[in-house]
Amino acid sequence: MYTKTLNLALLLAVVVVVLGAYTRLADAGLGCPDWPGCYGKLIVPDVASSEFERPLDLAKAWKEMIHRYAASILGLLIVAIFFFAAFRKTPRYQSI
Q1: Which stretches are transmembrane (predicted)?
Q2: Among residues 77, 89, 65, which one has the least CA distance to residue 10?
Q3: Which are the catalytic amino acids?
Q4: pLDDT in tens, 53-94
Q5: In the chain, what's the furthest Cα-to-Cα distance?
């Protein structure tokens, strides 16, 4: 289980880096100006409101939020890996 979690975190880290590059190159870095969420919602709002501080571009907002979701999942995986490593029952050192 520990090795599978490490491999999944490694794969997801690569995905987050690629998504971050794509988000940057698509100029979608400020598709959602606030955190967490997008314009006060957990998902991207489907219609623009006059109370938004910036005009809503749905394509840019979704690119940014997908990157944020992937990075959040990666963060949770890293926390899980920490707890797996800290509380595992196998000996950490081999005898000589």
Answers
A1: 66-87
A2: 77
A3: 64
A4: 667 778 888 888 999 999 999 999 999 999 988 887 776 677
A5: 70
**Residue 30 domain boundaries:** 2-48+56-86
Per-residue buried b or exposed e for 6-31, using 16+ beta carbons within 10 Å of the residue's own CB: eeebeebeeebeebeeebeeeebeeb
Q: Helix (H, G, I), strand (E, B), or coil: what is residue 86?
A: helix
Is residue 77 included in any domain, yes or no? yes
Specify the DSSP class assigned to residue 3: H
Q: Give Cβ neighbours of residue 50 (< 8 Å, ≥ 6 apart).
A: none
Q: Decide if 82 is inside a domain.
A: yes
**Residue 16 belongs to some domain of the structure:** yes
Give me 81's structure tokens. Answer: 């890996």
67: nearest Cα among 41, 93, 30, 39:
30
Separation CA 3–CA 17 (nearest Å) = 21
pTM, rounded to two decimals: 0.77
| Structure tokens that stand for 9 in this block | 């975190």
